[in-house]
Give the backbone structure.
Amino acid sequence: MRRNDFLFATLLGLPVLTIAAVAMPRPASAVRIVRVAEHVHVHGGSPTPTASAGTPSPAASGTPSGSASASASATPSAAAVQGPFPGDFIDINQVAPNVQQPQRNQNASRGSFVSHCGRDGNKHQNPDNFIVAPGVSNGAHHTHDYVGNLSTDGFSTDQSLQAAGTTCQRGDKSAYFWPVLRIRGQGNDTGQDGNVGTILQPASVRLQFRGNNGAKVAAMPSFLRAITGNAKAASQAGVNANAKWTCTGFEDRTTTKYPLCPGNSKVERILDFPSCWDGTNIDSANHRTHIVFPAAASGICPQGFKPVPQLRMVLAYNVPSAQGRSIALDSFPEELHNPVTDHADFENVMPASLMRHVVTCINRGLRC
């Protein structure tokens, strides 16, 4: 302590130790811990683990080890606080085969149609979602990859989509989009809302429309909107979660964790959409009740709903085995990049003639 400080303290009758403690600056590391912890708390705290999603590491609770004024030696890295965590990954060889297909009856529609729309080679990406957050920039707080319609953003309408160009063949102007997958630790981990890292372009994108196990399919109406999965599934106890992760060559099993794939096997995301339409509405307040999933056991639509072609997106990525634990799905900040939050969105803007062709292929058992 400087001599002047000592004399000033003595004149005031204050304990010298108190003056020293007040004058001591707070370590920068301690300030950072408080801010990170407060950020996680404000956005909803820890994700609620589900049986299928596994249990996050204790860091997921939003409270770093020790108190908020912990020393620098106890400071977790920003990536550790933001996720994903070690428990969010699993060796695909440790996942038992679990994919089962419902038995088809004699009325099943067995064909399929694939819309070829590319791999987002033009880097059409933004953090918008015109279905869930219309008219808002950065409404998703995570970046989406888009294929199909060239104009898709937070301000898209049925009319603007209809007037735009497309990356798809056969005039399919539909909007197909999903959160990007990133790889971290390559020296250019830039991004916003906690989503940092190099965006991985899919090695392949398969947009397949499939049939129904109990009936022929009807045509989708123009501008039908559909979503699958839940971008907030981690913090909402797995409600509406529909994430399926696997590796090429291991499609007989899926997991809600990031798969660690062997050798030249690719990381795969499988995104199945609902396919039982209420016959009237092209959207609903929660974007779910107008088009629902068929029964898991039978594959048949509930009463009052009719089957339409079911969209399945299969996205494959080249992830070197040594970097398997470096991948992270873009997510809302409070979701901590949990893989159970995988999701995707779709709006049908196919020409009516193309939709008729899709229905014909499916109902006649063709592979188109």
Remarks:
- The radius of gyration is 25 Å.
- The longest helix spans residues 28-42.
- The mean pLDDT is 82.
